[in-house]
Write a structure and sequence with these properties.
Aminopeptidase; 5 helices; 151 residues; 7-stranded mixed beta sheet
Amino acid sequence: MAFLINQTKKGTVKFLAFYDGDVFVGLTYTISFKDMTYLWYLAIQSDLRSKGYGSQIMRYLHELYPNNRIVLNLDVQDETAIDSEIRKKRKEFYIKKGYSSTGYLCTFHGNKLDVMSINGNVTFDEFSSIFKNYFGPIIYFFQKPKILRNT
């Protein structure tokens, strides 16, 4: 957690908390590089999901980064996964917001993820550059996600 917070000092990383009055609703963690913003986290309190907060936060992010391609990862669809319904709902949510698959999959810390974007696609090199810039060359060497073309 300290690493994530420390990275916000770069100015290209935003760790934002969202409230409805005094009630904590959720948070986002974004990384911007050139004309791309990577949405690393969007988390909504479990008891407040499906009440429009996620949509409001996504509108805010699109206003915050109006000229950027916004990129995110989702767990790949897997009917055998314990959380298959949640995965399906998340993907439907982002598709409704205008996101589409980039054609890339990535694996990061053992998780297989579908890469989606809005406001234009990203190339393999562009997607990699977000992480290279965020982690720096040494940490990137050890922490980089493996990016694959989705077949």
